[in-house]
Design a protein that fits this description.
This protein is of the alpha/beta class. About 30% of the residues lie in helices and about 25% in strands. It has 2 domains: about 210 residues, UDP-n-acetylglucosamine1-carboxyvinyl-transferase, Chain (Alpha-beta prism), CATH 3.65.10.10; about 200 residues, UDP-n-acetylglucosamine1-carboxyvinyl-transferase, Chain (Alpha-beta prism), CATH 3.65.10.10. The protein is built from 13 helices and 24 strands. The protein has a 5-stranded mixed sheet with strand order 16-17-15-2-24. A hairpin with a 2-residue loop joins β12 and β13. α1 packs parallel to α3 and α1 crosses α7. About 50% of the residues are buried.
Length: about 425
């Protein structure tokens, strides 16, 4: 059990590392392009390490120097015809690499992960790859890892995929299609979830000049192009930023945070700024970055649809006990298939903290009540740990710790330096658990 130390200082200036979502896409695009690509401000975490090691196992050359990674692309060719890929708990790596390896005309690839990843649903993506000529052999449970993929290239033309559980399969297919050098129409079924992440992939394909891509009714039309990026800067991670941007809410009236780096339209999770505005916090953006202040005039509750922003719903939910009115979050059904069953995990944590909640199939209502001391089960989920760590910074009993995490180190999956980032008049945030 690790206690979170409440924070005394009300003023913090900080920065966050590069986006995990952009880093993962950039590594794939770099491998699929032609020649050397330099990626700057690359996030170094468990998930990106998994991706890099998998690409190396496939025969790609990658070299890291500080926050920069050089990738030598093979023009859509997969160097190694056989490989065993251990993907940890990285769902993004799984759904991006499965279409990538299918570009090989005669490949055989063993895909496996942790027990948590092996339980995540991937049947919809693998069924799409089977329709394009791949042969899938499930080694334990149908529709889950571990499995073996035997490949015979991807055929251009019309593709089909269901995105009900994740938009990552759509992104993986779009990036693989750009390496075919032939037009592809991707038809998509299932309700749109995490739409900004699809849009991020589309933007990057255009930005890298990898493809002409158009959104059509029910999917995308894609025509590959020859030029690819030679250098790419990865902007700060919006999902990680949400935890620190939420600190003024946790610390109370007068608390403020300045985040270095400007938001962009690439990452949908910058919508957390809209949540803060809706709650009555002051938010301003200038050339130096983002400024958030708690003036003490909080609005009595909020309703938020998290369909497009699944990674920040837990930040809002964890801070809901500090909002003077009910918090209603919808659009969370698809987050049951993440690193944990997130709606259930968050609901259980809030109950331990003395809150009144109502959990539905696609929604969570939180009715604030006096907080009580509790140890939060992180369930191996990095976002549960980081969300509730921010709540633990609240001075519920002065500076006496009152909230604990059973395992704060799961943050390494996406943000190894989470507890060391904030800089203020006190100790670094890394000192605020023990």
């Amino acid at each position: 059990m690790h206690l979170i130390q409440p924070i005394q200082s009300l003023e913090h200036t900080l920065e966050v590392p590069g986006s995990k979502s952009l880093t993962q896409r950039a590594l794939i695009l770099g491998a699929l392009g032609e020649g050397l690509v330099r990626l700057d401000n690359v996030l170094d975490c468990e998930d990106t390490q998994v991706m890099m090691e998998a690409l190396k196992a496939l025969g790609f050359r990658l070299e890291r120097s500080g926050q920069a990674v050089s990738v030598w692309g093979q023009g859509g060719r997969i160097p190694n015809a056989q490989a065993k890929l251990f993907l940890g708990n990285a769902g993004t790596a799984l759904r991006f690499l499965a279409p990538l390896v299918c570009l090989h005309p005669a490949g055989c690839y063993h895909l496996e992960g942790t027990s948590a990843l092996n339980q995540r649903p991937i049947a919809q993506l693998l069924e799409a790859l089977e329709r394009l000529g791949a042969q899938v052999t499930y080694l334990k449970q149908a529709g889950q890892l571990p499995c073996v993929l035997k490949t015979q290239s991807l055929r251009a033309g019309t593709w089909y995929v269901n995105r009900e559980h994740s938009s990552q399969g759509v992104s993986g297919l779009l990036m693989a299609a750009a390496a075919l050098r032939k037009p592809v129409q991707l038809n998509i079924t299932g309700a749109e979830v995490s739409g900004p992440y699809e849009a991020m992939t589309v933007h990057m394909l255009r930005d890298w000049q990898a493809a002409d891509i158009t959104k059509i009714t029910g999917g995308y039309s894609l025509t590959p192009k020859t030029p690819w990026a030679q250098q790419y800067f990865i902007e700060p991670d919006a999902s990680s930023a949400s935890y620190f941007l939420g600190l003024p809410l946790a610390l109370g009236k007068g608390a403020c945070v300045r985040l270095r780096g400007r938001p962009s339209s690439l990452q949908g999770d910058w919508a957390f700024l809209d949540i803060l505005r809706a709650l009555g916090l002051t938010v301003s953006i200038d050339a130096s970055g983002i400024y958030v202040q708690n003036t003490g005039k909080l609005k009595p509750g909020i309703t938020w649809d998290a369909t497009s922003t699944p990674d920040i719903f837990m930040t809002l939910a964890a801070l809901a006990p500090l909002i003077p009115g009910p918090t209603h979050i919808t659009g969370i059904a698809h987050t049951r298939f993440k690193e944990s069953n997130r709606p259930l995990a968050v609901a259980q944590a809030l109950l331990r903290l003395g809150q009144s909640i109502s959990l539905g199939p696609n929604s969570l209502r939180i009715f604030p009540a006096p907080l009580r001391s509790a140890c939060i089960a992180t369930l191996g989920d990095h976002r549960i740990a980081m969300s509730f760590a921010v709540l633990g910074a609240h001075r519920r009993w002065g500076l006496k710790p009152w909230l604990a995490l059973d395992d704060p180190f799961v943050c390494g999956k996406s943000y190894p330096g989470f507890f060391k980032r904030a800089k203020g008049s006190q100790r670094p945030l890394g000192s605020h658990f023990r």
